[in-house]
Every structure is written in structure tokens, then in C-alpha cells.
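Researcher: We're reviewing a set of sequences before deciding which ones to prioritize for further study. For each one, I'd like a predicted 3D structure that I can look through quickly. This is Branched-chain amino acid transport system ATP-binding protein. If possible, include the structure in C-alpha cell form so it fits the rest of the review sheet.
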Amino acid sequence: MSTVLRIDNLVKRFGGVLATDKACLDVSEGDIHALIGPNGAGKTTLIHQLSGALVPTSGHIFFQGENVTGSSIDKRARQGLVRSYQITSIFKPFSVHQNLTIAIQGRTRETLGMWRRASYVQTRLEEAEQLAIRVGLGSKLGQSAAMLSHGEQRQLEVGLALAMRPKMLLLDEPMAGMGHEESGQLVELLLGLKRSVTILLVEHDMDAVFKVADRISTLVFGRVIATGTPDEIRRHPEVRKAYLGDEFEEVAA
Ligand SMILES: Nc1ncnc2c1ncn2[C@@H]1O[C@H](COP(=O)(O)OP(=O)(O)OP(=O)(O)O)[C@@H](O)[C@H]1O
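Model: Here's the predicted structure for Branched-chain amino acid transport system ATP-binding protein, in C-alpha cell form for your review sheet.
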């Protein structure tokens, strides 16, 4: 499988704090690649650098072979590297359908005003409906986003990101604050996206990670200490020592 994203010796310093320490990582096309590690390991800092929100101190990021290290968030998103933002990107008073339609407009940079042909508007509305179905919100089309549960709002955020038709999605702790049932729904959603979009997933919910991930990388003190299949990571002595703990193998197997 071809490499969609390559992180090459990435370094990010915040004053005296080395948040990313010569991190190297390859993400293969179509994979759900999880990034795990203890609190403060530098996972979010890495995602920020990949989305373009933070400029690395040194090193390179290649997306589909192109050096995007200095590219803006907008440019990366147009190239297909999209981060799903949490809650803030949702227009709470608007319905699920309206939110998704607006996100599609954001991609096309066109308005749905009166001068548009009805068939064009209809196409956008139908695309929004299909997106809602894809993220498990087909029955909530007319519901205002404010009335959705926490888990459903997260599903909508994934839908908003998918409206950009990304090649690769960056998800930062999508299961945070979710109960068992809600995270189960998001797991199903992610499994449904598998192969159609490459996903880099930062997540602390190890049940979810080990259910969805094709590959897992472990970050400790800003460094990628191991990358492998879920089985390889589950048994990796350094990963168990730094993060998973010895009891994990029995729980997750
Ligand atoms: N803007 C900043 N200024 C200074 N230090 C920062 C900044 N952002 C992050 N850090 C530091 O960088 C390190 C990595 O933080 P980061 O939030 O990326 O870790 P994380 O793995 O995402 O943690 P968590 O799992 O708790 O979310 C930490 O020591 C943190 O305090």
C-alpha cells in the first residue's frame, strides 16, 4: 500500500519543552492508523503540526509525496488533509442537514442563492443527506445540532470533515467524554469509513483503538517508540512499560 502521509524527523519546541522529538511516521493509504501514548506525550501537538495549526521547529511533513510542512491549514484541507474540529465547528442552532449543507458549500465555495439552478441546490441538499446517513444521522436530518447527544455531535463533526471529501482525516480524541454505547457507535462509523478515507486517530479509549486500527504508533516524550499491527503493539515490551501496562494483554486480547 502506498504511503499517504510521511512525517520525517519532526521537531517542535515550546521554549524548553521538546513536545515533538525527531518523530518519524508513515501512514498507508486506506488505513486507520492510531496514535497512542501517555498524557503529555505530544499527540495533540503532532496533530496540530499535521493540520497546519502549528509550525514545526524542524523536520518535514509530506502528504501524497508533496512537502506540505509550510502550507496553510486551508491549503492542506484543499489537498485532502482535513482535521475534524471538536464541537466548535458545529452551528448549534442549525439542523444536521443545514450544518452539512453549509460544510459542502465551504468546500465548493459557492452559494446556494436564488441565482443557482434548482437542480444544483437539490444536488447539494442530497449530498448533505447522504453524508448524514454515512455518519449515522440519517434519521436526525431536521434536528437542531444543539439537541443532539454528545456522541451524535461528534458524529456530525466527522460528517462536516467528510464534506471536504478528504483523502485523509485527522481525528483528535473523538471518543473523549463518551459512554460505552456512544463510543460503540463511533467505532461503527469509523469501521464504515475504512479504506474510503485514510484516518490518523489520536485516542485514549484502547478498546476502540484496538477494534478499529490497522496500525498503531506509540508516542512517548514526543518520539515514536513503536509502530505495528494491534497484535504487535499489544505485545511490545516498551509500549507496555510506557503506556499499556502488563495487565493490558489479557484485557484486550
Ligand atoms: N502551546 C504550548 N506551550 C507550551 N507547552 C506546550 C504547548 N502545547 C503543548 N505543550 C507541552 O507539550 C507537551 C505535549 O503536549 P500535548 O498536549 O501535545 O500532549 P498529548 O499527548 O496530546 O497529551 P494528552 O493525551 O494529555 O492530550 C506537554 O508537555 C505540554 O505541556
